[in-house]
Amino acid sequence: MRKLKITELNRLTPEEFKYTKKHRVIAVLDNVRSLHNVGSVFRTADAFCLEAVYLCGITATPPHNEIHKTALGAEDTVEWKYFEDTLYAVRELRERGYVIIAAEQVDKSIMLTSFAPEADKGYALIFGNEVKGVQQQVIDLCDYCIEIPQFGTKHSLNVSVSAGIVLWETVKLLSQKAINRL
Length: 182
Fold this sequence. Notes:
Blueprint: H1 14-19, E1 23-30, H2 35-47, E2 50-56, H3 65-71, H4 74-77, E3 80-83, H5 86-95, E4 99-103, E5 110-111, E6 123-128, H6 136-139, E7 144-147, H7 159-181
């Protein structure tokens, strides 16, 4: 095996990325306070060709050096929108026909291993504050919640890690369904 050089990775230019077909998935950050977590979600959104990232409440917005440190320019390629209140974002997404899902531990959450997104639908995946998680009033507006199975003594993951896991699984499942329909 040989590690590939950056020139061998066939990366899209920012202009090419702009016109690339995106997955109908929007990452919604509900009062995420760490700028590094925000940047990490942007980078993940770019890697998986998500439609957008919605930044809500106290979540910082680009341009910002601390976001850029982890986003590495993805904050310039991924579409984003700011909402003063996450509830406004959820209502807009619902009006646009998105399935609203929070990544949160609730009494009726669906384990990520049982998640079965439908290829013809759009998904808004909400990730919450590092301490308090997704607000209950936001959960109340969700179609359902997804929980990442965990097996150790800690029953929480960093928000950017959770986003990476859930977003990858969603894009992977949607891509498989699209391929199976061909």
